[in-house]
Amino acid sequence: MDTYHTSYCKPLNMIIDTEERGLYFRRIPIGSSFDRFLVRVVGSDGQCAFSGDFYRNGRLYLSTGNLPDGDYFLEVFNCARESGRFRGYVQNNEAHVRVVNGTPSFCEPWCLRDNTSIIQRFSHTRRTIQQLLAADSSYPCHHPEIKRQAASITAGIEDDYGKLLAVHDWVAENVFYDYDSLRQDSHRLVSVGRSTIEVLRTRRAVCQGYSDLAVSLLRACGIPSVSIGCFALGQGCSGGWERLENRVNRPNHAFTTALILGRYVMMDITWDSDNEYSGGRYKYKTGYGKTRKYFDVSPILLSATHRLIYNSEDYNSD
């Protein structure tokens, strides 16, 4: 692969091209927190092969001409120009680069083609749209509290894409990951169940609650949406797709998709939230606040950590 990009949302998208002997950052996300970058190329042994510190107005280019042949991982950290606090943007083996004779290329994540195939199979029929707007026990979009909150979040926003981003941001900023609700069961973590209305009232949930609340708010706005099951790396497991025990067809995580202008937009609000509830306290994990890294996320970035679990009842009601 010659190009790596992180998002379909243009202001959030980072585009990295491979040139004959290096990596060229062709596009940088908009925002003051993306004024300065620390870029590292890490070998498969975990050792940093080289790094560079860049500013937005400079030429963001990394030469790979002197690197020995092999597999590497690109890491990108960003911060505001005057800040010394870098935050990881592309990391945790999310961008796999192979170098041969000094020439780099991006490697596909193991599940990219399967994920792309599943997304392409999602239905766009009228019946499916009706189903993705319906109220049910998981998505009480007609509940007065849901309707009031949805109207408050999207007040003054005319377009559905803008409403989608507003819902993403509100849930990421206002819901806290409930570590206190987790318990160990048969070598896996499970959570005490909580209804969507309880999530709205308590502002506490795990991934399913984040997603179900977002879907309920979106459906209340007239935006077709649904929670998606997936297997996500780091959710009660270790290692990457190279480990066979992670290549399983069972969900351990949930995130959200919405049908906007004939396209399914993916977003993992749980992973974009900086909030946690633990020890009976609402607090922040890092203090950086929410991100939009997984809003309208590209298939290659999504597939670095998420394997979609296809459910024909949800997406293929022809």
Task: Name a few traits of the molecule.
318 residues, alpha+beta, six-stranded antiparallel beta sheet, globular
Q: What is the structural class?
A: alpha+beta
Distance between the amino and carboxyl termini = 34 Å
Shape summary: globular
Instruction: Give the helix tally.
Output: 9
Residue share in helix: 10-25%
Mean pLDDT: 91
Radius of gyration: 20 Å
What is the quaternary state of this protein? single chain
* Total beta strands: 20
The main sheet comes to: 6 strands, antiparallel
- Tell me the strand percentage band: 25-35%
Order of secondary-structure elements: EEEEEEEEEEHHHHEEEHEHEEEHEEHEH
User: Regions with pLDDT < 50 over 5+ consecutive residues?
Assistant: 184-188
List the helices and strands and how they pair.
Blueprint: E1 3-5, E2 15-19, E3 22-27, E4 36-43, E5 48-55, E6 61-63, E7 70-79, E8 87-90, E9 96-100, E10 103-106, H1 112-121, H2 126-131, H3 144-153, H4 160-174, E11 176-178, E12 182-185, E13 188-191, H5 196-202, E14 204-205, H6 207-220, E15 225-232, E16 253-260, E17 263-267, H7 269-272, E18 275-278, E19 281-284, H8 299-303, E20 306-308, H9 312-315
Parallel strand pairs: 11-14, 11-18
Antiparallel strand pairs: 1-2, 2-3, 3-6, 4-5, 4-7, 7-8, 7-9, 9-10, 12-13, 15-16, 15-20, 16-17, 18-19
Helix pairs in contact: 3-6, 4-6, 5-6
